[in-house]
Amino acid sequence: MKITDIRATTVSVPLEAPLRHSNGTHWGRFVRTIVEVETDEGIVGFGEMGGGGESAEMAIRGLKPYLVGHDPTEFEAMRYKICNPTASLYNNRTQLHASIEFACLDIVGQKLGVPVYKLLGGKLRDEVQFASYLFFRYPNEATGEGEVRTPEQLVEHTRDLKERFGFTTHKLKGGVFDPQYELDCYLALAEAFPLDRYRFDPNSVYSVEQSIEFAKAIRHINNDYFEDPTWGLNGMRKVREKIDIPLSTNTVVVNFEQLAQNILNPAVDVILLDTTFWGGVRACHKAAVVCETFQYSVAVHSSGELGIQLATMLHLGSTIANMPFAIDAHYHQLTDDILVGGKMAYKNGAIAVPDKPGLGIEVDREKVRYYAEEFRRLGGYAYDRDPMRPDWYPIVPNDRWANP
Q: What tens digit of pLDDT does each residue of 108-150 get?
């Protein structure tokens, strides 16, 4: 079996409301690039990557000379063709590789008639638990609804998500407002739902001192971990020495070299594996095995997925033993998906692992065409810009907080 073609289509799928974070905003939609890999046996596999537009589509097309004629079962050879570590000094193709690997896993699973989790050694759980992913939100531009700005709005939004999806773990994305204000919001959540579990992520924009102070103020809460409060391995290590809450990261340990450094000189307790940022499902699975060897727990990070990447997260999450935490997903913030039948369904805060061959999902080509037209109509947006504060940008550590 050989790869005969690679195609990329950028789509824009609406969110319930714009999502605010430490560097800017998701402007009311997710822009993703859908990747198709076709083989000479007529099997087509699907992948997905973040961002989009002509640059992403051109980057995917640029891989055709590397991959047309390649056997999609030869994953290690593909990794070195695309992500040779010395060549990657000049062309970092990690996320491109991830999208192609997703599609090749989909192809191989279809060829063998087995779900992707079988290619990873088999599943250990039939469903994967999810945390609610809570954001401060601007109101929906069309309806004026969906704003999350005050502690009261945050609690009501969380209550709604619990009723609709069954979440019992909650992650609050901070780094938008002054730390004291966000602390008040986080404490309000814990008071409203005292039996649930929590995690807080200010996206690395707190100083070491602010991080320590915040951690001490939340030590009585049912915290899974404190995610990326400050920047850098050394900064995280300084925080870790002064607090008694586990630290987690998806920013300072995102490859095997950084993982080795963290094991030799610990700065982070929980490694958040992202199937895009780490370069694919297989890289995440390898990293999870390394973490298991050294008694590190892992969870699965979200980078703003549609159903294709969500499927990779489900297959990965189902196979990892050392994952005692619910995983992250932006998925419930979407109003639709590019899958046949729409979004995958949550039940009691979990989503069932697909059992059909390959990734186990069916892409709705009509929806892809529709949301590709939406992208052409709306265009992209800068993730690290806030449309309501066009001249603003943060520094690290930040002191340019939004006014609540």
A: 999 999 999 999 999 999 999 999 999 999 999 999 999 999 9
Q: Which long-range contacts (CB under 8 A, 24 or more apart) does 388-392 make?
A: 388/25, 388/138
Name 137's bridge partners: 19, 148
**Is 173 tagged catalytic?**
yes
- Choice among 70, 97, 123, 173 that is catalytic: 173
pLDDT digits (tens, 9 = 90+) for 297-350: 999 999 999 999 999 999 999 999 999 999 999 999 999 999 999 999 999 999
Catalytic residue among 97, 301, 315, 330: 301
320-334: burial string, b at 16+ Cβ within 10 Å, e else: bebbebbbbbbbebb
Domains and CATH numbers, the chain: 3-113+364-378 (3.30.390.10), 119-352 (3.20.20.120)
pTM over 0.90: yes
Pairing status of strand 270-273 against strand 297-300: parallel
118 belongs to the catalytic site: no
